[in-house]
TrEMBL record:
InterPro entries: Kinase-like_dom_sf (IPR011009), Plant_receptor-like_S/T_kinase (IPR051809), Prot_kinase_dom (IPR000719), Protein_kinase_ATP_BS (IPR017441), Ser/Thr_kinase_AS (IPR008271)
Main location: membrane
Compartment(s): Cell membrane
Protein name, per record: non-specific serine/threonine protein kinase
GO cellular component, one term: plasma membrane
EC number(s) recorded for this UniProt protein: 2.7.11.1
Annotated Protein kinase domain residues: 108-363
Record-stated family: Belongs to the protein kinase superfamily.
Length: 363
């Protein structure tokens, strides 16, 4: 009995010349012999098939990894190149129309006028589309620097979020009914007005018994401190407020303070290799009494300037005296007023609303 592989060449290529009957161990040969395939050949085919499968799988994996690498590099470059721009852009804010704001404020009615500032007027209104009470800051574009104030405030507020910063809802850059340019910022409405109105009872009309006890004042001081810490140390880009004062601190219904009005804020890029002490002061002016004296002499703005304003705000909250109070004459100021009274005569300079007369007598 024969066994093994039958060749396909020569005489073995003629099926009629061969007789393989009874030789069950033969394999291979031409197809006319009807012999089973040899095991070695079958294994070669199986190995070849597996090799092709492995090549396909490896190729797909390498391709997917390459795509993932390219996408990752693109996203990283996009993130690193993304600037906190000072350019005139408000793209990240959803805009409302002039008509929406006109209707919300009842045609900018005097009854809805909350107050006016350096670059415009502030109105209370109801945004019909969302049934939401809002505050609308309308800029006076005839005043020099108003356009820049609008862009600065948009850029300062569009990317920052903190519980102690006023939240900007949207903005409007349009044309009014007279065909004139119109720009406005829309904020959350703070029911309890500004800290200025709480400290100085004769200013403003807000719906509350406008007195703050010592505990409430300390909580507001902490709120403002948290806001400044966020602006100076936790933002993607350092923000210098440059105009911190009681009228720019708003109080919500829970007596939580929110720092507002970033109209002259300074944005300092973290990739410009510029320290906070090396920024320019061109066009930046705070409020007399709250801005540090060196700003008036052309010094550079810095976080130290904001902290000076914060210190003056604290002194005003505790004494009830403005830095520009008429009592400060002949070189006197609020800081000196507190300094000469500390520590023995502190009770004499405290705001009487902090310590009622009967408690003061007990102390």
């Amino acid at each position: 009995m024969l066994d093994g592989e039958v060749p396909k060449e020569g005489v073995f290529g003629n099926a009629s010349a061969l007789a393989v009957t009874g030789n069950n161990k033969l394999c291979g040969g031409i197809s006319h012999l009807h012999l089973p395939p040899c095991p070695v050949e079958h294994m070669k085919l199986a190995k070849h098939h597996n090799y092709r499968l492995i090549v396909v799988i490896v190729s797909v994996v390498v391709f997917l990894l390459a795509i993932l690498l390219i996408v990752s590099i693109y996203l990283m470059r996009k993130r690193t190149k993304k600037p906190f721009s000072n350019s005139p852009t408000t793209d990240q804010l959803a805009m409302v129309s002039y008509q929406d704001i006109y209707q919300a404020t009842d045609g900018f009615s005097a009854t809805n006028l909350i107050g006016s500032g350096g670059f415009g007027s502030v109105y209370k209104g109801i945004l019909m589309s969302e049934d939401k009470v809002i505050v609308v800051k309308v800029l006076n574009l005839e005043k020099k620097g108003a356009h820049k104030s609008f862009i600065t405030e948009c850029n300062a507020l569009k990317n920052i979020r903190h519980r102690n910063l006023v939240k900007i809802l949207t903005c409007c850059s349009s044309i009014d009914y007279k065909g004139q340019e119109f720009k406005a910022l829309i904020f959350e409405y703070m029911k309890n007005g500004s800290l200025e109105q709480w400290l100085h009872l004769r200013t403003g009309n807000v719906e509350h018994p406008r007195t703050l006890d010592l505990n409430q004042r300390l909580n507001i001081i902490i709120d403002v401190a948290c806001a400044l810490h966020y602006l100076h140390h936790e933002c993607e880009q350092l923000v210098l407020h440059c105009d911190l004062k009681p009228s720019n601190v708003l109080i919500d219904e829970d007596i939580v303070a929110h720092v507002s009005d970033f109209g002259i804020a300074r944005l300092v890029s973290s990739v410009d290799s510029i320290s906070p002490k090396d920024t320019s002061t061109i066009g930046i002016k705070g409020t007399v009494g709250y801005a540090p004296p060196e700003y008036g002499m052309g010094s550079e703005v810095s976080t130290h300037g904001d902290m000076y304003s914060f210190g003056m705000l604290i002194l005003e909250m505790l004494t009830g005296r403005r830095p520009t109070d008429e009592m400060f004459i002949d070189g006197q100021n609020l800081r000196m007023y507190v300094e000469i009274s500390f520590p023995n005569d502190v009770m004499e300079i405290l705001d009487p609303h902090i310590v009622p007369r009967d408690e003061e007598a007990t102390i």
